[in-house]
Amino acid sequence: MPVPQHVLNWLYSVLTSEYQDVNRTYNDVAQALSGHPGLSPRTDVHTFIDGKSALLVHLSGTLPVVFRGATYRFPISVWVPHAYPREAPLVYVNPTEKMVVRPGQHVDPQGQVYHPYLAAWSRFWDKSTLFDFLAILTDVFAKEPPVISRPPQQSPQQGQSGTPPSQTRSPAPVSPAPPEIPRPPSHYSRQASDAPQPPPPPPKPVAEAPSPPSLPTGPPKLPPKPTSHAAPAPALATPPQIGSPPATPHAPIEQNVPNRSSRYDSAPPLPQQVQPPVPQHARPGHPEYMTTDPNWRPAVSHQQQPMPPIQPQQPAVRWDAVPPVPPQEREPHPPPPMQRVPPPNFLDEPVEALLPKPSFAPAPPIPPNPEKDALLRQLAKTLYLHREKSREQNESCMLGLQAQRTAMTVAYNRLNSERTGLSQVSALLSSNAQILRDALHNADAVIENSRQHPKPDIDELLVAPTVVANQLYALVAEERAIADIIFVLGRAVERGRISPAVFAKTTRSLAREWYLKKALVKKIGRGMGLDVTPRP
C-alpha cells in the first residue's frame, strides 16, 4: 500500500534533524509503512533504561497475524533510534485495557520484544531492515501470541444473581487477542450460556473447577454435549440432591455423542430435575445399583466416575436428614438436549446447599491416544534413522579426519623445530647487530675526533719502511721535478720568455743532474730487487 506523499515529506523533514543516516532510515521506515498499513508514524519522547530521553520516530499500530485460522491484530510500537541502522530498533507490545501481555520466549512481562535478529543487528546492520524484522515478528506471533484477553472480573454479587455468565462477560477489545492456552474456569461457564456449537478444543487438558452456579431467573439453557474418548469407569457416585452436596465439583460430560472429538470441552452442571434421595446403601462401590436403562446416558467429568439414575420404584429412606421427595415428582426420562427444561424451585433452599463438595474419588485413567502413539513411533523411527545416518557419516569421515590430524601433528612438530632454529638465528643476529652498532658508534667517534686535528704534511705520510726506500722516493721525486723544469724551460723559449743562451746553459746543468739522479735510481732499484726496465 503506497504511503501518502505528505507523510513521506514529514518523515524526511523529521529525520534530517538528529538522525545520522537519513536516507537509509527514510527508506526502511517508508518500506515498513508501505508493507504494514496498520502502523502510523509520529515523534515521541522515549526514555531509555539508563534514564536518558530522546525524541525518536515512533511507529505505533497493529500487526495482523493469522493464529489458528483467525486473523488477530496485535498492538505494537517500534522506536527508531538516532543511530539507525547501526543500532537495532526498540519493539514493544502495547496491550490495550482489555488485554494483558503474555510473556514468552520473545516477549518479557514488560512487553519488550527480544529476538536473535535484533541481537545480531549490530553485526549485520548493512543487511538488516525494519521491514524484514516485522515479517519475522509476524511469524513469531503466529506461533506465540504476545497478548491474551484479560479475564473478566466477576464480583460475589454477580455470582449470586440470576444473570447468566454470558451477560457479565466483558466485550471484546478493538484488536482481539487469542484465548490463553491454559483456559480459566470462567471459560467453561461461558460455553454453557453461548451458542450450542462447541468452541475449538484446547491444545492440552486443563482440569478446572467451575464457578458456583447462580440462581436462574428464567429457564436456563442446556450445556453443549462434549464427548470423552474413554468409556466411563464402573464406579458409581451419588447424584446431586436438594439440600445435599453433590458428589464432585467438576462438570458432567455426556458420553454417547459420537460427533464430538474433544474430551475436554466440558460445561458446568445445570439442575435438570428433582430426584428422590439415594438410600444409604446406594453409594459408590455397590454394583447392584448400576443401571441398565438404554435411554439413560451417564455424565462423567474429568475426575468423576459415571453416575446411575435412581429408579422410581426404590424405597425412599432418610439420608442425612433430608426429607424425601415423592417419586412422582421425578420425570421418567431427561428432556432432549436442545430443549429447555423448567427450572427447579431452588429459592426456598439455602445457597450453600448448591455448592459443590470436593470428592476424594480417584480420577479415571486417561485413555491412550492412538494418533499420539503413532506420531511418537514415527518420530522415534525418524530420529533413529537420522541417528544411524549421522553415525555412518561420522564413521566415514573419521579416517580422513585422523589422517588430517596426523598431518597436522607432523606439521606442528616441524613448525616447532623451525621456530626453535629461527629463535637461535634471531638471537645470533641480535648479538651481531649489537656489535655492528658498537663498531659504527666507535667509527663515528674517530671521524669526529679526526676533524679537530690539523692536516698532516704529505711527506710525513709517505714514509718508506727503510732508509734506502726513502732515498729512492726522494730521487724519483727530484728526477721528475727536473724533467718538468726542462719541459717548462722549452715552452718559455718558444714563447720568448727567456733567451736561447740562458735556456742552453740551464738545460745543460739540469740535464747533467737529471742523468746522475736517474743512474742512482737504477742502482738503488737493482739493490732492492726492483724492475728497472726503462719505460717506452
TrEMBL record:
Chain ranges of the UEV domain: 6-151
GO cellular component: ESCRT I complex
Domain called SB: residue spans: 466-534
GO biological process terms, semicolon-separated: establishment of protein localization to vacuole; intracellular protein transport; ubiquitin-dependent protein catabolic process via the multivesicular body sorting pathway
Highest rank taxon of the organism: Eukaryota
Residue ranges, annotated region (Disordered): 146-340
CDD domains: UEV_TSG101-like (cd11685)
Compartmental location: Endosome
Keyword presence, Flavoprotein: no
Protein name: Related to tumor susceptibility gene 101 protein
Natural source organism: Cephalotrichum gorgonifer
Lineage of producing organism: Eukaryota, Fungi, Dikarya, Ascomycota, Pezizomycotina
